[in-house]
Automatic annotation (TrEMBL):
Coiled coil: none annotated. The lineage of its organism: Bacteria, Bacillati, Bacillota, Clostridia, Lachnospirales. It comes from the Bacteria. It comes from Qiania dongpingensis. This is Helix-turn-helix domain-containing protein. GO terms for molecular function: DNA-binding transcription factor activity; sequence-specific DNA binding.
Length: 99
């Protein structure tokens, strides 16, 4: 965990996010908290990560998501050398899908 990121304010934000019950509540909350561009950037990075995990090429990812190769590289670096947050979420989603 990044010590610069861990603050009381970030803890409060994450606790608030954990109270959200469904996708509609997420839309309601995140539309208030983030700009449209911030939300689209976050969703683009997540989609890039999904596609990288599915072994798609940078070209395929760039064409489908509109992400730059720099963004794709940053996400790839996070997948390979980050805190395994993407993998944690992907595994949980896979488990839910199998149920």
């Amino acid at each position: 965990m990044n010590k610069k990121l861990k603050t009381e304010a970030v803890d409060h934000l994450f606790q608030a996010i954990l109270t959200l019950k469904d996708v509609n509540e997420c839309y309601t909350f995140f539309e208030d908290v983030c700009t449209i561009n911030e939300l689209l950037s976050l969703s683009q990075r997540y989609e890039v990560a999904r596609m990288l995990r599915a072994k798609k090429t940078y070209l395929e990812i760039a064409e489908k998501t509109g992400a730059s190769t720099a963004t794709i590289s940053r996400v790839n670096r996070s997948l390979n050398y980050g805190n395994d947050g993407y993998d944690m979420v992907f595994e949980r989603l896979d488990e839910e899908e199998r149920k």
